[in-house]
Amino acid sequence: MKLLTKNMLAAALLASMGTAMAADPAVVEKSFFPYKDGAPVVEGLTPGVVLTAENVDQFQDAVDPALLQQIKDGWVDITIGETTDFALHPNYISATEAGNATLGATAGEIQNFVAGRPFPQEPDINDPRAGEKLAWNYQYGYNWGDNAAIYPFYWRYRKLETGKIERQIKFNFHFLNWKHRVNQEPVPEFANNPSGLFRSIYVQVLEPFDVKNTQLLIHRYEDDLKRDDAWLYLGFQRRVRRLASGQVTDAFLGSDLMIEDFEGYNGRISDMNWTYKGTRNVILPFYNHNDQALTSEYKDPDGYEFIDFHGKGGCYPNVTWQVRKAYVLESSSVDPNHPISKRVHYVDAQTFTLPRTIIYDRKGDPWKSWTICQANPEHHLAKNKGSGVSIDDCFSMIDVQAKHCTTGQFKGQVDPKLNPTSLFTVQNLRAKGR
What we know:
CATH class: Mainly Beta
Number of helices: 6
Shape: globular
Oligomer: single chain
Number of domains: 1
Number of strands: 22
Helix content: 10-25%
């Protein structure tokens, strides 16, 4: 991997954009370094404080409503850690400085975008398209960088009331950006991309035997108005089948997750109506992995230890949470037959990851509580240091209606060697399935 200098990257990006005007450096700095002048303050909510059923009401403005209710019900206690800087890669920031993206006439259209954060300006509550701009910032965010892998990835299906583990699945997940790349060559995109792909995800089940070698491949196109293509290889059937668009909202392998839930939201911008609801200082699961109470139960050959779980049913990551600046973003499906009426995302203002999402059923009742932990790359695997990637480190999807949860434990690796382009093809599904 060749690390591009800031000047080299800026020159390449500006050349590809012609005469487009660059973004205001002061705006970009504020977007990427929101804590430069100090961390957000919530009176009494300092590092070491433990939120419990007895004291959480006094901090209710800093806790999202789903988590607030779960703490009040005694399902989990949350320990507060120090708010820390999660600086993204300098090349991604430089790409933002060189950018001049604008929205198209309709949702799902964006113009003059090459790489970086499309809309680094603070959202305006009076801007009717502010939510859409935040959604684009997530879509083109630096989540997993130009490519990475969760290698391996353990999912557990749990009963909330008893903590019984019903099933465990071991996966490998792989991610590759074909366009808008800033760090790993080729930059800003692969030349050989005749289908016009933006991003691909490849998933392979390693264990248990009954679903071993089940594989999922998702292709998202640069044209957001074009539907994703997705294929599923079922090991026991030994054949590849194309997924219908509606199947991304089915339970994936019997878990509490839909394919559309991956990474917080795994869909097109044009599939949703987006509404910016305001900016808040709230607690979010950001931390240093190496400082947490880890578990060695999986006996990783490299000695890596995974995030552990606690609380009701063992459904909650045993990690510290930080007070962070977040944009509250509501999404509702343009399809009236969608099983979800809306999602409320708490978008981290520095990284534009989606660490907390509350999901409501078709009737508008709270349905699922979605947490994706974020680990600082400087306190994780050695290969992740310097990557500028906020590492997805664990997850918890709690179905509060069914009293069930699915948890995930990650070994996230920002390593291009794990993600050759050949992995993200239908031919690979068949080859791996033999």
